[in-house]
Automatic annotation (TrEMBL):
PANTHER family: CARBOXYLIC ESTER HYDROLASE, FERULOYL ESTERASE B-RELATED. It comes from Neonectria magnoliae. It comes from the Eukaryota. This is Carboxylic ester hydrolase. SUPFAM superfamilies: alpha/beta-Hydrolases (SSF53474).
Amino acid sequence: MKNAEPFSSAIDHFLLNQGLFNRTLLGIDLISSSVTASVMCNATSGMGSTTTYTYCNATVAYTHTGKGGEVVLKYADATDGLGYGAVGGATDAGYDAFSNSYDEVVLYSNRSINWDATHMFGYQALGEMTLVTKALTKSFYGTSSDAKIYTYYEGCSDGGREGVNQVLHWGEQYDGVISRAPAFRFAQQQVLHIFSSMVEDTLGYYPPPYELDKMVNAIIAAYTDDIALGGKLLHYHGESDSSIPAASSERYWQSVRSVMYGDMSQEKSLAALEDWYPARATAAQTRCSPGRTP
């Protein structure tokens, strides 16, 4: 373990420059004593990566003003930022999400809802992490207070849902969001889990692999990918997703169009939404898999 002083000093520097001597940033109390930092040599960055890097692996915790508990932020380790030469962060959302899933903490022992965990899971934790990370990045790298920190988010499945919610609640903090196969409309999602098996069982026919491959190749041959990342939110969903219905993304996109541009003609409303929120179905792609994507 190397000296954590440079990272801790970044926290002090930012708070001092902002005149926040009580160590509070927008209802967030950063805990300097929680800072750890270590130099990782020829190590992977987690998330299934096999590429090795030499990097600074750091953590810091904070509390919410007037509340107990701690929220832990990780930088570099367990993130994909290193591959892009970027600062990458992850949050435990205050309920140790690195080890626990939300359904394990959503209820208290008296069966009442843990609303703090619910809000953190839904949208709050990632938004707070983004605010803190942008501030610390400026201080750590010695950039000017008015320097632009370009910020992007990418996630799939529940991460895709989180991406959509970041646009809804913290949209001004991001320069771009890629949301893949967002896991919302849970009722339809659960039905889809058994749909294909029921069809095969009802028909009494189970297509051999070569037939499935032929269908996939035909779809790819007919597919035209015509999108570039120029919008605020890029949303795409694999049509071969066997868990999350691709139609749920289409339904959500159309709902946004009707709410925001309901007074326009169909042609104009489609163009207006497409300008900042392009959405596409990607042929023959399963959930969160590599494949032909924008």
